Amino acid sequence: MAQPLVKYTLNRKGQVPSWIDTGSDSFAGEHGITGNKDGCIPRYEDPQDMIYLGLATGDVDSDGTPDSYVGSITTKTALTTYLKTVGNTVKYKTVTATVTGIQTATTVGLATVWNNTENYQGGLSTSTTTKHTVSGVGTLATISTSQVTKVVVKTDTTTGSTSATTETPIVIDAASTLSGVSTSVGIVTTTGTDDVGVTTTTTTTDTTSFTYTDVQTSSSTSTSETTTDGVTTRTDTVTTTETGNYETTYDYAAESTRLWDIQTAKNA
Q: I need a surface site. Which of 15, 141, 204, 235 has the fewest CB within 10 A?
């Protein structure tokens, strides 16, 4: 009995079909992609709208197959071609987190100074190293998003006008770089009538679109104490680390080999 590499969907209950091998030495649910085309009547309805790769538990029956069976991939070349089709559609990239900057700040002083209740820090000395920086392999990833940065609500009544402004600044990591900033303005006016008269409310909303580099800063602190002749000295070392996510081209050949080797071993 062979175990072919197949394309499949979930069954009508939203479950992995019973004829898919989900064992630890197999694979299932790999490289999911919608089976439908934008702007067209869906060929596959929920919950069967995603197509996955997996190994079947037996041969394909030439007399017919369940509706969760989409097709088989019979050669490694065909597998590589299919992976590239999926990857080009969903924009596969390999993302690697890379430490791009490290800096330490060391503060030394008597324990009695560190522990004083008045929070007086005189007597402590701090030295900071030059930040060590490196570049990752590939292209530093960027994230594009938008947020509401300003809302102005103006209310006009028969007795006068009021205005309230709420501003929300863009906040990104200190090591990240901001670019592609643009702002669009939307204005909505509503009018209502009550016992006092006509009230007109005008809401002006600024929405800012921007892109920033995918970098995160983290810090850790280590503390040590040494005692000499009854005098205790405490040392705090703060290590600040910058980590960037770097994108490289997805290795379709390696992934094809990984999956095909599993299929080959199962059919040996």
A: 15
Q: Tell me how far CA of residue 118 lies from CA of 124, 128, 234, 242, in angstroms.
A: 14, 25, 18, 34
Residue with tokens 């940065």: 149
H helices, E strands: number in the chain = 3, 14
pTM above 0.85, yes or no: no
pLDDT digits (tens, 9 = 90+) for 89-109: 999 999 999 999 999 999 999
User: What gap in Å lies between CA 198 and CA 203, rounded to an integer?
Assistant: 16
- Does the bond joining 47 to the residue before it have cis omega, within 30 degrees of 0? yes
- Per-residue pLDDT reduced to its tens digit, 130-188: 999 999 999 999 999 999 999 999 999 888 899 999 999 999 999 999 999 999 999 99
What is the domain partition of the chain in residue ranges? 5-92+250-266, 96-138+215-248, 142-213
> How many CB atoms are closer than 10 A to CB 79?
21
- Burial group, residue 198, by CB count within 10 angstroms (0-12, 13-18, 19+): exposed
Q: Which of 81, 111, 99 is nearest to 255 (CA)?
A: 81
- Between CA 101 and CA 111, with CA 105 as vertex, the angle to 5 degrees is 155
Instruction: Look at residues 192, 196, 193, 209 and name the one whose alpha carbon lies nearest to residue 144.
Output: 209
